[in-house]
Amino acid sequence: MALTIGVDVGGTKVAAGVVDDRGNILEKVRRPTPSTNPKETADTIAEVVDLLKGKFEDVTAVGLGCAGFVDETRSVVMFAPNLAWRDEPIKAIVENLVGLPVVVENDANATAWGEARYGAGRGHDFMVLVALGTGIGGGLVIDGELYRGRFGVGAEYGHVRVVPDGRRCGCGNRGCWEQYASGNALVYEARELARVSPALAGRLLELGGGRPEGINGPQVTEAAREGDAAALECFRTIAHWTGQGLADLTAVLDPGCFVIGGGLSDAGDLLLEPVRQAFANALTGRGHRPLPEIRIAELGSAAGIVGAADLARS
Amino acid sequence: MALTIGVDVGGTKVAAGVVDDRGNILEKVRRPTPSTNPKETADTIAEVVDLLKGKFEDVTAVGLGCAGFVDETRSVVMFAPNLAWRDEPIKAIVENLVGLPVVVENDANATAWGEARYGAGRGHDFMVLVALGTGIGGGLVIDGELYRGRFGVGAEYGHVRVVPDGRRCGCGNRGCWEQYASGNALVYEARELARVSPALAGRLLELGGGRPEGINGPQVTEAAREGDAAALECFRTIAHWTGQGLADLTAVLDPGCFVIGGGLSDAGDLLLEPVRQAFANALTGRGHRPLPEIRIAELGSAAGIVGAADLARS
Amino acid sequence: MALTIGVDVGGTKVAAGVVDDRGNILEKVRRPTPSTNPKETADTIAEVVDLLKGKFEDVTAVGLGCAGFVDETRSVVMFAPNLAWRDEPIKAIVENLVGLPVVVENDANATAWGEARYGAGRGHDFMVLVALGTGIGGGLVIDGELYRGRFGVGAEYGHVRVVPDGRRCGCGNRGCWEQYASGNALVYEARELARVSPALAGRLLELGGGRPEGINGPQVTEAAREGDAAALECFRTIAHWTGQGLADLTAVLDPGCFVIGGGLSDAGDLLLEPVRQAFANALTGRGHRPLPEIRIAELGSAAGIVGAADLARS
Amino acid sequence: MALTIGVDVGGTKVAAGVVDDRGNILEKVRRPTPSTNPKETADTIAEVVDLLKGKFEDVTAVGLGCAGFVDETRSVVMFAPNLAWRDEPIKAIVENLVGLPVVVENDANATAWGEARYGAGRGHDFMVLVALGTGIGGGLVIDGELYRGRFGVGAEYGHVRVVPDGRRCGCGNRGCWEQYASGNALVYEARELARVSPALAGRLLELGGGRPEGINGPQVTEAAREGDAAALECFRTIAHWTGQGLADLTAVLDPGCFVIGGGLSDAGDLLLEPVRQAFANALTGRGHRPLPEIRIAELGSAAGIVGAADLARS
């Protein structure tokens, strides 16, 4: 049985797994990312690969999912702010260190591929992944193939501008979608609400230890599950922006299925129902076109490993 | 030599041509669209096809580019407000009338294909067409193939929302891109300027016969060519929104080339230079990624005929 | 009985009347404004004054309500775009021509004073007039006195910015309130609706002779009275912006009464009810403060004459 | 010599002083506000008044400047969220406790009066105070008199809406001016910048102890004084919104002078110059009207005490 290793290389951790040809992870390992030093990050990748390779003889290839712009040859990470990589020939470096063929992919693309093959996107040839976490990770499957764009940097949905002169974004622009529809945006809403309306946001403040900046995403979800009005209002706001953005992507891409992943997707129906509603209200041509499905991701944080490993196989 | 016929079926006219395998139009014919009656429109299509077929023996197939939503089997026009078609099985109807195989495509898609094969998009495998006319017509070529989406209705870029609670759009929503970046948007700007600042817009009013609503697009272009400050301001405004929208599409699609067509593209560099500038300012990740080209379309209104004919060939 | 003459000097007509000390107009006269020539406009004012003065012996003074910026000494019109006046010493000129003391006032201020003394503002010492016509005319009565500001140009509410980067205004800025809440704004909404959704706006188009630009304000009011959904939607939109603006003025001025005048006020409750609703929703501190009344003006176009005449008396 | 006592009753402290008829504070005292209990706050006021009165025989009256809505009789605080007062007859209560006549005024009104009489507004009969602190405190002097509005709650400039659907405000609305132009807004900008662009905001983060939420207003001013680009950008943003708002107030009020106070005014020319520039760009009718002066407040936090004491004298 051919096995491959998938590695999810993020700004805070390197997570790797051995994956079989049905998308099962046989063994997993995880290290913190030594992010300030590009070379050390490559060494860490090699270390986890070696460790896994030592336990399974049949490993034939390695897939890396990296948080950054990956060039169209899937060899070079052009820009990865959280990994301190600029034009890093990471494929060659890691192949040299581990002695196996390596494929490099953007981490959200790897996640999209994992969900498309083995998760919520199964059976859909036209799938859009939207991972709502710190920002928005995006991936796109067209005709059953991962879409990479001309230069390898497509599907960066989070930086579509949705509000002229809107909120600042880390990318240097203003009004990017991920400032309105992401896990961070949910926390932003909750903290802003707690700051200006502490009475209304009493439960959120309580969970946050009394300070607006103490509130985190899982707490907002928890409060919303309890029926807290303030938390539910935060969810409605995020869902409104999410649904509008999915409608915009539908105008461009006309997919058969959206898969919503990322930490925010843990909220499940709390998020999904108002997103569907907002989407239906915002879609152009509604009533005259078939609608895509909107689903919650199924593989959680494993999707990136599974997807990277599967890309290495083909 | 295999010839095919391309027919551009718009709300006001049916234009058809015999096209060879190098994209040349050998003969053309044109009729007004009898738009209030779906059946008559089909008859008109059959009439122009018969007329052309009578002159060229080698015609093997017919491609229709229709202003509307075309289903994923390329057989049925699901919704065409300007043609009074709803779920019209136009492929079967026309095949029955003319005795040749028929392919149906959205008109902007046909235009995109024409430009991709024989016009400004030649040599680009990842091309986005943006036709700035009454609204925005969109087309997309991926890996050298026309992209149709899961249900046949992708690349409707004009209905991406760019301003929350913005200008009304004919689609029923508000803030759609085509309300800010199209030939109509240019006229809107010019008329609004003439309405509120008649002194500044003196030349535009003069060309428009003294009334704001008399101003049309070619007049704005004419005044801008003369260096009229008001007309140039209108162009800058449209170019700003166009460039921003192309940046948004780049975040999603990462194409190698944009082709700008439609009536507004007749303005050439008057439009192109400020669009490029606005695009460069708005693109996320600028400085860390290769840039797509932005070009003016080359085939003009013939692109739809050439594209539809070529799609019928393959 | 002391009589005075009030003259309403607008961009299209000069309307004058003899007014008694209870605000009754005893006789009226009207001439078109020869607006392109400042001197002729003064002559026209003198002509109507002479004509009225010839019929009533007891006329003791003249009040002019002029569409423009009037200086703090009430002598000079600093800027009146529609009358072609710049720093015109109109008090001295007219006194010289007619041999009576003259007081000059901004036309909306004169209207406010008329309504405050003899119209809908009677009994209110803190009154705001908002005249919704071509633009927004504003007036303010504080402690029973007409408020003029430090330099004579206060109460220009129409040019408060309500939308960043919003609609162009004739003043050169963008997003001014009068572009969203005025008679012209109503027509703008109706024409825009007719342009993009002709089916929905069928009745409006019918009244407008089939063309969006044929639609005028009284037609929108007529259609709204008939219950036409499109016209009612236009009214709701205007009322929303009007109510929000009144809430903003309340934050600044805390008046006891708003009087809504101008051509749009002819719509009566069609306008008043949704304005009150929007105001109540938008007011800061609602529930913790007394609310001002919101009334429709009572004197119609006569308010300017009555107000100017009354100002001349005191 | 007649002396009066002014008391500034804020959410965190009660500050009082004995003031002579030239606006000099002869002695000062200060206590924390026992804000959770309305009665205790009145007792604290009485305590500081008794203490000061014991030292100066000639004290004839007491003026209270309270953070809240004060009714038009200057007797009752209708609503003071930070003092836990609702319809509190504070004049009667304090008169009873201290045996002197008491005048109650809104705190920003008292500050405005202090600046108008003895500070930066001297010599101006039409003055607007804008105190940029936690929010925006507003005051208005018309014809040399403090303006109170019909119900005592005018000059709440901070809650004019400047952005439709903008930032949340503690008042329950969205888009209020004080969310964009205040000391808090400066901190908000700086923290947001540090959050999304830590590299650019390095100096601000350093001052803030490494965390965005550690950054405070004086630190932003300090960094701006050093020439830090990020801090200067934050000031420009705040100044832009401040200048726009002053232009809006000028359209309504046409004052002779603006006085900018509050904690943010400590920044002096760093704030003043870009505010003047933004104001000049935004004013309607610029070029055709006299301009108001824009000055920085002179009395600092003493203005409220001085103003309240002076109001008690008259």
Automatic annotation (TrEMBL), chains A, B, C, D:
It is an enzyme of class 2 (transferase). Keywords: ATP-binding, Kinase, Nucleotide-binding, Transferase. It comes from Actinomadura logoneensis. Its EC number is 2.7.1.2. Belongs to the ROK (NagC/XylR) family. GO terms for molecular function: ATP binding; glucokinase activity. GO terms for biological process: glycolytic process. It comes from the Bacteria. It holds the Pfam family ROK. One of its GO terms (cellular component) is cytoplasm. This is Glucokinase. Gene3D superfamilies: 3.30.420.40. NCBIfam families: ROK_glcA_fam.
